């Protein structure tokens, strides 16, 4: 008969205990490193200064370089990159006119927002067979009825506005107190019917010149405008005389509901204009940013507006 060594169980238990202690110690050290890293990071980037720093100060050059050093976004935590961007706000902004003009010229060659941002009677004549942005096999022929709802030509020209603001709807401006600065812009773009009631005015302002509407919002919140249209009209009144911009020719599903917006406003005798993105403009903008390294399946409404604003405005503030 064999006998087990009574000390073997104690050795096994001791090994497990030591292993558990090692794991706990490792986790604790890792946590302390993260805490210390975070403190050093905050200390480095969030020192208190009396007023903004000069654009070319040593500190601002260092902050900009820290952001420019990021070559692969996946190698950096999103929160860390965002904190670096926030820290840069202590620096005075200064426009590089040469670079801005060069970029604007590149956009003019590829996209030409002053001529092709919207479908117009000039760039989309009667009878045009308009190809959709995504459903490229789909063709929409411009009938007299649709032709008549297009503006005669683009309402905006190159560098028409001195200072523009492009305001998203992701909630990043909460408690920012940026409302007054936004309202001081000469022209304000907003994305996808964001709330601009008195509750939010201190953070996001009220002024709106163009607001985009994703047709999915109309489908989900307003039942495609097939029944009750007054709630949709009431929401639009918060934007006063802002023009509405929709991707009617992004795909075949968007067309009817986007055109219906124009008819609703006509029914209520609204003075608000309704415009539609030219699908070729959207295609050209996507190609432009793809060359710049943006690998999104489809670029966002915000980036489209920023791209257009860079041609229509001398300065663009986000």
TrEMBL record:
The chain crosses the membrane at residues 17-37. GO terms for molecular function: alpha-N-acetylneuraminate alpha-2,8-sialyltransferase activity. Gene3D superfamilies: Glycosyl transferase family 29. Keywords: Disulfide bond, Glycoprotein, Glycosyltransferase, Golgi apparatus, Membrane, Signal-anchor, Transferase, Transmembrane, Transmembrane helix. PANTHER family: ALPHA-2,8-SIALYLTRANSFERASE, ALPHA-2,8-SIALYLTRANSFERASE 8E. One of its GO terms (biological process) is N-glycan processing. GO terms for cellular component: Golgi membrane. Belongs to the glycosyltransferase 29 family. It comes from the Eukaryota. It is found in: Golgi apparatus membrane. The keyword Metal-binding does not apply. It is a single-pass type II membrane protein. InterPro entries: Glyco_trans_29, Glycosyltr_29_Sialyltrsf, GT29-like_sf, Sialyl_trans. It comes from Pyxicephalus adspersus. This is Alpha-2,8-sialyltransferase 8E. Disulfide bonds join 164-313.
